[in-house]
Structures are given as structure tokens and as C-alpha cells.
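Quick entry, no commentary yet.
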Amino acid sequence: MAEPWRVKIKQFQKDFIFSLRRFPALVSGWGSGKTFCGIMRAMFYSEHIPGNLGVIFRKEYTDLRDSTVRDFEHYTGKKVDSQRNVKFSNGSMIMFRHLEEMNNLQNINLGWFMIEQ
């Protein structure tokens, strides 16, 4: 069993992570934890909803690879595979894609998505 995360989050971060709005957004300054909060929300949806498919987009592939994927692996301890996916034992999956690939992702049923920067 995975060890629980032990982090202290600020109220605005908690408001985003657990928002019930259909399309929540977190807009804040550099170093305020936007990526961390997005990853926490992605993990929450992926771990608690079996068979949930989600995708994290970033504009530039190199930024996706060098920043977002690296942060995800650091924060969660989960490894992104060579196809840029993370699979969960409950059948959920998180895909990591750059925005230019959005046209290739047609006719899939997403449970959630995240666009970073």
C-alpha cells in the first residue's frame, strides 16, 4: 500500500484540489504550487474513480518531459512509461501529451484533463 502524502497546503490550493466546479482553474504566481496542485487533483481522480482516463497537456514537449513529468514522478513516486502513461491498479490511467498532439486524441472519453502553462 502506498504511503499517504504528508504535505501542508494553503487554503487556495485546497480550494482548487477539492473544487466541485466543472472546470476549475488555478491561476497564481511563480512558485505557488500550481503543478503540485494539478498533480494532486489528477491523482485524486485517478485513485478514487476506477477506470478513469485523464490527460495532462503542456504546450512544449521538452517542458512536458523535463518539468511536468519529472515533477509528477518526484511528487508521486510513480514512473511514467515509455508511451508517456501512468497506469493504476484500478484501471485508471494518466496520459502526458503536448498540445500539438491534441488533434490525435479524438473520440476518447476523458474523465478529466489538465493544461499546464
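second:
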Amino acid sequence: MEPQNTLFAYGTLLVPRIWRAVTGCDCPSQPATLPGFAIYRVKDADFPGIVSAGRKSKVEGRIFSGLDEETLFRLDTYEDEFYVRREVTLLDAAGNPVESQAYVVPDRFEDILSREPWTLEWFREKAMDNYLFRHGF
């Protein structure tokens, strides 16, 4: 997989309804883990950001493949300005390294994150209905 044609999703984009609304496609995906990063809620928000963290930290998500320029443009438009889409090294379900891209919060913007971990379960239970309504999904 070429990094420019893949994306590691770890937050709201893991919800199929949101992924399809943003990208307009059902791209192939598989589980993946991003080692060396941690996931936190953005302050005063219901969505997450990831930042570099210790070696023992990891973020679970999915790697989506077969992305074209239009899909990446749509994803870039969906994400907030403080994220940077950059290359990262993931581990696929078998533990093999895979090069991909992910939206990461750079160190200079790290103060926008709370220290409250973000989980998909929390999002589904506490915030998803409001999020879907606000974004017209």
C-alpha cells in the first residue's frame, strides 16, 4: 500500500455513516494500530486528536486504502485546521509495519487537547447523536 493512497482513521471517521458522508465512498479498510501515539479529546469538543507519546502508547483504528485525490481533499476539508496529515508507520492486524498517513496534532498545538482519553465507545454513547445532527449527517 502506498502511503499517499491510505489513511489511518482513529476517531469519528471510524463510524461508517460518518466515513461515507465525508468521503462519499466505501473504501477497503482493515484494523491497524499506531504505536507511539496517544488519543485525547479536544478541549470543549467531542472529537479526538492524537499526539506523539511514549513507546508504550498506542492508538487503535483502521487503515483505509484506495483513496484518490478527491477523497483526500474531502478528508482534508472535514478535518480542523490544527491537524496535519503526515506519514506514520502503523502495525496491521498481523503486526507487520505499514506506511500510511494520519491526521496528527503537532506539538505546537498540543495544548488544544484535554488529558481525557477519547474512545469510540464514549463517542457512540455520549456524543454521536449530537455530532451527527451538528454536521448534518
